[in-house]
Amino acid sequence: MAQKLDDTKLLFRAVIMGPPGSGKGTISERIARGFGLQHLSSGDFLRENIASNTEAGVLAKTYIEKGLLVPDHVMTRLLLPRLEEMTCHSWLLDGFPRTLAQAEALNSSCELDLVISLNIPLETLKERLSHRWIHQASGRVYNMCFNPPRVQGVDDITGEPLIQQDDDKPEALVARLRHYKDVAKPVIDVYKAKGILHTFSDTDTDRIWPYISSLLSAKIPTDIADAQRASTH
Ligand SMILES: Nc1ncnc2c1ncn2[C@@H]1O[C@H](COP(=O)(O)OP(=O)(O)OP(=O)(O)O)[C@@H](O)[C@H]1O
Ligand SMILES: Nc1nc2c(ncn2[C@@H]2O[C@H](COP(=O)(O)OP(=O)(O)O)[C@@H](O)[C@H]2O)c(=O)[nH]1
């Protein structure tokens, strides 16, 4: 059950997990818009830290540039204080935790209500990522078929050029996916054992979304979702 802070306020804390290209970012945006949960993306947070040259950002950059995960102690030192600032908000974490050590650190700092795990076929991931273009500074994601930018090759908000990440090329993806599976399995097992894991499998986000939406509607009372939406917009 959502954690009760006082008589009028309930908080809801969720995590979304899935391999690269599984739709975490896309679904997180829909959840944020529809249910008022604050979307906290570890990738976006790292990019903000890199852009503002914080000590952790400078360190994280050296790993990201090599295609490596940022070490657990750097991630937890960055993310946990951010979560502690959000004691009055309901949130959805995307991209964290990625490892068992991160899950354990998160566990000792707060109680999660729900974990969404996306289980998408490899061929679908390859196809999607081959069409994924991003606006590097903000992390905004487009897909040339599914959600194209208004003007081809250009970010809708800033008008800056979009790029395709080397990591999203099919040859890099297989290795990334294998790595994701190895690292995520123990995390998924922890959440399964806690009874808070919900797994969704399909090739289309639009087919998965109604199930996620009804799950959240059942778990988050309407008045809480309305209050959260009002406080985040
Ligand atoms: N929880 C984390 N632990 C370690 N490194 C992380 C974590 N979250 C993000 N990173 C680092 O930041 C980079 C960018 O993260 P981001 O989630 O935006 O993109 P990604 O890894 O390409 O994932 P996806 O394709 O699933 O969106 C990652 O490749 C990784 O190096
Ligand atoms: N064709 C298609 N593309 C999708 C679908 N869902 C998401 N995408 C696109 O696939 C890519 C990966 O989605 P994203 O949300 O970035 O996944 P993440 O890596 O898990 O955060 C993006 O370019 C999305 O726009 C879908 O159902 N069909």
CATH topology of the domain at 11-120 and 183-225: Rossmann fold
Strand content: 15-25%
Roughly how much helix do the residues carry, as a percent range?
A: 40-55%
Q: Could you describe the largest sheet, including whether it forms a barrel?
A: 5 strands, parallel
**How much is the radius of gyration in Å?**
17 Å
Rounded mean pLDDT score: 89
Q: What's the total helix number? A: 9
Q: List bound small molecules.
A: adenosine-5'-triphosphate, guanosine-5'-diphosphate
Kindly state the number of beta strands: 9
The CATH homologous superfamily of the domain at 11-120 and 183-225: P-loop containing nucleotide triphosphate hydrolases
**Can you write the helix and strand succession as a string?**
EEEHEHHHEHEHEEHEHH
Q: Which class of secondary structure composition applies to the elements?
A: alpha/beta
Spans of at least 5 consecutive residues whose pLDDT stays below 50 are 3-8
Q: Widest sheet: strand order? A: 4-5-3-6-9
Catalytic activity: UDP + ATP = UTP + ADP; dGDP + ATP = dGTP + ADP; GTP + UDP = UTP + GDP; CDP + ATP = CTP + ADP
Keywords: Acetylation, ATP-binding, GTP-binding, Kinase, Mitochondrion, Nucleotide-binding, Transferase
Protein name: Adenylate kinase 4, mitochondrial
Subcellular location: Mitochondrion matrix
Outline the secondary-structure elements.
Elements: E1 3-4, E2 10-11, E3 13-17, H1 24-35, E4 38-41, H2 42-51, H3 55-64, H4 72-84, E5 91-94, H5 100-109, E6 114-119, H6 122-130, E7 132-135, E8 140-143, H7 170-194, E9 197-201, H8 205-219, H9 222-232
Parallel strand pairs: 3-5, 3-6, 4-5, 6-9
Antiparallel strand pairs: 1-2, 7-8
Helix pairs in contact: 1-8, 1-9, 2-3, 4-5, 6-7
Bound molecules: adenosine-5'-triphosphate (ATP) and guanosine-5'-diphosphate (GDP).
